[in-house]
Each structure stands twice: as structure tokens, then as C-alpha cells.
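Worked example 2:
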Amino acid sequence: MEDIGDTARTRELIQAARKAIGSLNTSVRNRFRQEPDILAEWRTASRIHRTGGPGLGESAPQPVRPAA
């Protein structure tokens, strides 16, 4: 059951990170509005990427073993 708590905690952390990035976006855009290179770097660095693996709460598919 510990995994369920970990999944919920991960969701909370991702939501908190997105909220913090949203707040920072305004400040960064205002501070560096005349510096497009820095803004481009910020846009890249502030993205939260999905890993392409199973979503939160989903288990990874089990490998299929050939019949013996």
C-alpha cells in the first residue's frame, strides 16, 4: 500500500512544481523581456516533461515470457 501513497505524493509534488513555475514565469518574462535568448532558455528549463512511461497510478506492462 506504500506505493499508493507514493503516487499521491508524486502528484502533489508535480502540481506544486507547476504552480511555482507558473508564478516564476511572470517574473522571468518581465525581468528578461529584452533578452530573447534567456527567455528561450527559461522556456526550455521550466517545462515538466513526461517520461513516456506509464502514467501515475498505472503499472508498467509485464513482459510476456515464451511458453516452455
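The helical segments are 2-31, 36-45. The two ends are 33 Å apart (CA to CA).
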